[in-house]
Specification:
- By secondary structure, the chain is of the alpha/beta class.
- It is 25% helix and 35% strand.
- It is globular and about 60 Å long.
- It starts with 9 loop residues before the first helix and ends with a strand.
């Protein structure tokens, strides 16, 4: 797969973990653990990236596999696993073409990764593959973000930087996004820079226009139901409280009958 098909390559992949920092207290981590305890193993982590969840759960004795579209992220996950003396089952595949050797009791699609599927039919295609990879009674859990609400600015951005441990060079990520209310899609541009002794020694621009599709709660629920899932429920953020109409982050869980 070429880098033009996905965002996570080059400097973004190399410094992904460094820029994110400690993720051990991220709230989704605890909700997914509760989902796994309730619905069972084995587990599939879709969009596993560098192994934030896959390796954490594997260390806890959970039977979990990881899959990601990015070859670079899979390699980073393997390197992180080696450092932890773990041997995860990892697959470099696309959500819409998923073909794995076993079925699961729980499939997680963290980080709102379903919203990266932008072409008509792609989200449902991915959902049907998830459905096929679940055991009867198994569940699919996925968070969604409302990317824009009436009155919000159409453009936003942020900058984040951290010192590279080995030499003190500054790793900087500058992000820009623009939301199109007509398409309900957001375009993004990320500039990654390495600055040493006041001089930029390397830079890379990752532009995805469009990059992400916004969902309402009713749209996300309808997607699950169209794929055949039953008992589809919307929860507020990363809790088991029922979703509120004003929530801009919500989690959908559906069961394969």
């Amino acid at each position: 797969m070429s880098s033009s098909n996905y965002e996570y390559y080059g400097l973004m992949a190399t410094y992904w973990d460094l820029l994110r920092g400690d993720t051990s207290d991220w709230p989704d981590r605890f909700m997914w653990l509760d989902v796994i305890k309730k619905y069972g193993q084995p587990v599939l982590d879709v969009g596993c990236a560098s192994g934030r969840l896959t390796l954490d759960y594997l260390e806890q004795g959970i039977d979990i596999d990881g899959v990601d579209i990015s070859t670079e992220m899979i390699e980073l996950c393997k390197a992180n696993a080696k450092n932890k003396r773990l041997i995860p089952a990892l697959y470099n595949q696309i959500m819409t073409e998923l073909k794995l050797p076993r079925k699961y009791k729980t499939i997680l699609v963290p980080s709102s990764s379903l919203q990266l599927l932008l072409k008509p039919g792609q989200p449902l295609q991915a959902m049907q593959h998830f459905y096929d990879h679940l055991e009867s009674g198994g569940v699919l859990a996925a968070p969604f973000m409302v990317l824009w609400q009436e009155g919000d600015p159409l453009e936003s951005g942020f900058s984040r930087e951290v010192a590279r441990p080995e030499d003190g060079a500054t790793i900087r990520r500058t992000s820009w996004s623009h939301y199109n209310p007509e398409t309900k899609m957001e375009g993004t541009r990320d500039t990654w820079e390495i600055i040493k002794d006041g001089v930029m020694i390397e830079s890379e621009v990752h532009e995805q226009i469009p990059a992400t599709l916004s969902y309402t709660q009713s749209e996300a629920i309808a997607l699950f139901e169209e794929a055949g899932f039953a008992n589809v429920q919307a929860f507020s953020e990363f809790t088991f409280d029922p979703a509120k109409p004003e929530d801009t982050l919500f989690t959908i869980i559906g069961t394969k009958p």
